[in-house]
Amino acid sequence: MSERLNISSGYPFEERYGYSRAVRVGQQVFVSGTTARGPDLDRDAYVQAQRVIGIIAEALEKVGAELRHVVRTVVYVTDMADIDHVARAHGGAFGAVRPASTLVQVASLTPASARVEIEVTAIIHD
Q1: Distances (CA, A) of 27 to 35, 65, 106, 121
Q2: Total count of domains within the chain
Q3: Which domain holds residue 98?
């Protein structure tokens, strides 16, 4: 049986809500939906998406994975008018990897000023 490794990013909501930023079981890694934080929440969707991908990359690194191991992304936006901004950030990070991906518009995110949230699944294949 594979050992389970839970990773926290230190975000206070993780403890309150009862979840992990990332969970690794065997070669599979699941990163929770992630939004920008702090001053980045006052920025446009491109900056927010870049920061989100940075937070995800940090979580992946803590479990021995990298962005190149990502096989699936799910992207939530609060306004489809932001699609070009989000696509530019997503393509910049995953363009060579080309994971399966879903993009959906939602009514709101937490925190309320977040414009984009991304979750990923990775498989460490090397």
Answers
A1: 25, 9, 31, 11
A2: 1
A3: 4-123
**For position 103, which CATH number holds?**
3.30.1330.40
pTM above 0.90, yes or no: yes
The alpha carbon torsion through 76, 58, 32, 96 (nearest 10 deg) reads 50
What whole-number distance in Å separates Cα of residue 40 and Cα of residue 61? 22
Q: What is the pLDDT of residue 99?
A: 98
Query: Does the N-terminal peptide bond of residue 111 adopt cis geometry, omega within 30 degrees of 0?
Result: yes
Tell me how far CA of residue 119 lies from CA of 1, 53, 70, 71, 123, in angstroms: 25, 9, 10, 11, 14
Structural contact between residues 123 and 48, judged by C-beta atoms closer than 8 angstroms: no
The pLDDT tens digits of the residues spanning 41-64 come to 999 999 999 999 999 999 999 999
The β-bridge partners of 105 are 77
